[in-house]
Design a protein that fits this description.
Elements (H helix, E strand, L loop, with lengths): L3 H42 L1 H13 L3 H24 L1
Helix pairs in contact: 2-3
Length: about 90
């Protein structure tokens, strides 16, 4: 059923496909690695900002989470509406 030429041509095809797929995946892999590095580098720098935001939300009392959870969707909706308006 399978002769040597069929096996050789299918091996070449699979080798070529692996090469193309790996070459196409390289930008995604590089982007992912750079994002992970950025999270670690920036995460250390903004830790005090996160603590300040947490303290501010805590100061707001029981309304703190409600304000934050209402503020984020409202800003997102405004940004989407602005984007659609500007086309």
């Amino acid at each position: 059923m399978h002769d040597a030429t069929h096996t050789k041509s299918s091996d070449q095809l699979f080798w070529h496909l692996r090469r193309v797929i790996s070459r196409a995946a390289l930008p995604y892999l590089a982007f992912g690695v750079s994002c992970i590095v950025a999270v670690f580098l920036v995460g250390r720098e903004i830790e005090h900002h996160i603590n300040a935001i947490d303290a501010w939300i805590t100061q707001l009392g029981p309304w703190g989470p409600k304000i934050v959870y209402g503020w984020a969707p409202a800003n997102f909706s405004a940004a989407v509406a602005e984007r659609e308006k500007n086309g």
